[in-house]
Amino acid sequence: MNPYDESAPATPTGPPAAGGRIVGGAADGEDQAVEAALRPKDLGEFVGQERVREQLDLVLRAARARGGVADHVLLSGAPGLGKTTLSMIIAAEMGAPIRITSGPAIQHAGDLAAILSSLTEGEVLFLDEIHRMSRPAEEMLYMAMEDFRVDVVVGKGPGATAIPLELPPFTLVGATTRAGLLPPPLRDRFGFTGHMEFYAPAELERVVHRSARLLDVGIAGEGAAEIAGRSRGTPRIANRLLRRVRDYAQVKADGVVTREIAAQALDVYEVDGRGLDRLDRAVLTALLKLFAGGPVGLSTLAVAVGEERETVEEVAEPFLVREGLLARTPRGRVATPAAWQHLGLVPPPQAVPGGGRQGLFEG
């Protein structure tokens, strides 16, 4: 798996796929199968997330000193930033086994009860996309986290009986890309909450150099910087781009990744200098050329690029908004001056900064 991969080998989670995007945040089978050796094994190897690492180190050291299990941990942030990796590091630091599952895989309280009842003392349970767990299972988890017991209901109707089941102390590590969807009673039961931030280019360069060393890829400093600059602040994407650049360097050059080789390779894979791919540029191009920069409704924009509304909203828009290329307004989506500049286009005279154009393309 990717060293910063946060996928679990259960029901696929995350935003809709968009044609296997090389800059997509979700992990695919190749990521999970090829990159297992790239995972950091302890907090000292983990690159980036300095504040979360420091806080988590204190939590784990204190737990080891007490001779008990670590507090339950909630990790939030975008896909690909290292939530699964940190859960495995927590288990390694505590000398405990880890069990991995996901919220969508737990649709009934009985599913959760079966997992909890098979845990051993001190085991780490990693629950990815915890906000997508069913409500009955979520309510069972409250008691399990707080009192280390669950009530298993046997039978139905008036004859149903609740049998209390004691659980060994364990550590739950929950991961979510949408922390706001977690109900307060569940969120409050976590002893430590860490938010994973996007990586700075310098941190991604360190990720690329480390991965290149483990993959035995020759890479120049400028080559690593080129890959890092197109990785959208996400280590998983940086490692994915490194593998594709490695392939190009082996076939088209002498196997060494320089800035020129990296740029040529990523141009082949349609990832531009700011990390935008085909879908991102299609959304911007439609917004600028067909709708004069907007405002335009999301459904209309999705039809223009031939994608589902959810794909545009959840896959393309977050990065475009974060890069300051697109803005969401009450009247629709609008392009910023940076979007016109990035695509080398001149805004029409009627375009008003901030999306104040007359007229609206509804949808």
TrEMBL record:
UniProt-listed CDD domains: AAA
Statement: the UniProt record of this protein carries the keyword DNA damage: yes
Keywords: ATP-binding, Cytoplasm, DNA damage, DNA recombination, DNA repair, DNA-binding, Helicase, Hydrolase, Nucleotide-binding
Ranges where the record places region Disordered: 1-20
Sequence positions that bind DNA: R309, R328, R333
Region (Head domain (RuvB-H)): 273-363
UniProt GO molecular function: DNA helicase activity; hydrolase activity
Keyword Hydrolase in annotation: yes
Reactions catalysed: ATP + H2O = ADP + phosphate + H(+)
Entry binding sites for Mg(2+): T84
Residue spans of biased composition, Low complexity class: 8-20
Localization of this protein: Cytoplasm
Entry domain remark: Has 3 domains, the large (RuvB-L) and small ATPase (RuvB-S) domains and the C-terminal head (RuvB-H) domain. The head domain binds DNA, while the ATPase domains jointly bind ATP, ADP or are empty depending on the state of the subunit in the translocation cycle. During a single DNA translocation step the structure of each domain remains the same, but their relative positions change.
PANTHER family for the chain: HOLLIDAY JUNCTION BRANCH MIGRATION COMPLEX SUBUNIT RUVB (PTHR42848:SF1), PTHR42848
Described purpose of this protein according to its UniProt entry: The RuvA-RuvB-RuvC complex processes Holliday junction (HJ) DNA during genetic recombination and DNA repair, while the RuvA-RuvB complex plays an important role in the rescue of blocked DNA replication forks via replication fork reversal (RFR). RuvA specifically binds to HJ cruciform DNA, conferring on it an open structure. The RuvB hexamer acts as an ATP-dependent pump, pulling dsDNA into and through the RuvAB complex. RuvB forms 2 homohexamers on either side of HJ DNA bound by 1 or 2 RuvA tetramers; 4 subunits per hexamer contact DNA at a time.
The protein, known as: Holliday junction branch migration complex subunit RuvB
Source organism (scientific name): Streptomyces gamaensis
Taxonomic path: Bacteria, Bacillati, Actinomycetota, Actinomycetes, Kitasatosporales
Gene behind the chain: ruvB
